[in-house]
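Extended Data, panel c. Modelled sequence:
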Amino acid sequence: MLLCVFAIVSPLAAQDTADVHAAAAAAANNPLANMTSFQLQNYYAPELYGLPDETSNTAWLRFVKPFGKVLVRASLPLSAVPTGSGDSISGLGDFSVFAAYLMTDPSAPKQYGIGPLVVAPTATDDALGADAWQLGAAGAFFNLSLRSRRGADW
């Protein structure tokens, strides 16, 4: 009898655990999630158009912190980019801060926010940044609906 109860409850507990993990993964990938996080992301390009035998690599350090309906995201790239002569330049890129005002409810399946973007000229080489202060607007959209998880955009 006890074995029968265990056989019925175990799959239910496994499903609950899977749901918790799926929700955590969705929140971690949501740029508008109401959670403080520090992210490390890496983008590697094994080949570049017009530059044979050259590669590019950028690691992003990102810090995200919500303040009520405003979400602040600060990003700093660490890059290695080719010069075109077989060499590459490595160093810091420009530091950017984006403050998004969340226009939707945090529990909505489709979320979006808009706000200002400020970029500071922190690049250690001209090839790694714009060498100028920049101010503009930015937006973010995240679709968490079941349909989007199956491959559709809307």
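Residues 2-29 form the longest helix (28 residues). This feature is highlighted in the accompanying rendering.
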